[in-house]
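Review form for a predicted model. The reviewer records the input and the model, then writes brief findings.
Reviewer: anonymous (R2)
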Amino acid sequence: MSAAPEGFIAQLDQWRARMEDALSRRLPPPGRLPQRLHEAMRYSVLGGGKRVRPILLLATARALGLAEEQVEAAACALELVHVYSLVHDDLPAMDDDDLRRGRPTCHKAFDEATALLVGDALQSLAFELLARDPGLPDAPAVRVRLVGLLAEAIGSLGMAGGQAIDLQSEGRSLSIEQVEQLHSLKTGALIRASVMMGAACVPALDARLERALAGFAAPIGLAFQIQDDLLDELSDTATLGKVAGADRERGKSTHPAILGIAGSQERVRTLSEAALKSLEPLGAKADALRAVADWLLARRN
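Model under review:
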């Protein structure tokens, strides 16, 4: 893994600015009834963040020759469901976190009932965008495929299921295989969807290229979560924007807890190599995806 080149950092900034504007335009305005709910939705979505999942989709679109306008709404849908998951995960009934992205979590800034409704409303808005946003490809088959990919990624066989397993596993010792299965659901499923939703916007995509993208997305999703666990051990609260060391305090089984720091870093390297090798059929067209992978796995927050 190498540091992202200066030109790519500028691209990241451009993509983040694009997403901030796109999300702001698609969220209900703060003055619209019910005002408190809409204010809380905007607080949660527009409160910073790396925009990892939209950036993965935008980089996939570039690899496939799609214009950013053709996938912008799908990128927004990904970020909306990601934020909904964070808002719900932070609640006292789940991870009981007070800090997110360097600010009070939604239920601390507002209240628990509002936070529940924020998550519900963001998830609903995400699927409304996939069904109705005029910027996405018109083909009904594309819209249905996008809805299916996102629904699968966040349901009981994806993100929600992974969170359920995570909650049930606190204080228990899991094997590394069990930890990787948990992470493939809780985090990896939506990372995979970020790439495959880009592929879904090309109805006649060559099956070989679709397999290449799937082969990239799965290991990158797992490597991303391992890097997150490493940062929880090695970084600090100010840098992370959330409480550092929380996994250890909750008795969670993580890669660093099982494999140690060096073993976890080696696992990240192995997964990264596998992901990048999968992109070979796309050639230079996938350079943005390669740069995103390097950025994700070399990050410090």
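Findings: The first helix runs from residue 6 to 26.
Further findings: The chain has one domain: 6-298.
Recommendation: see findings above.
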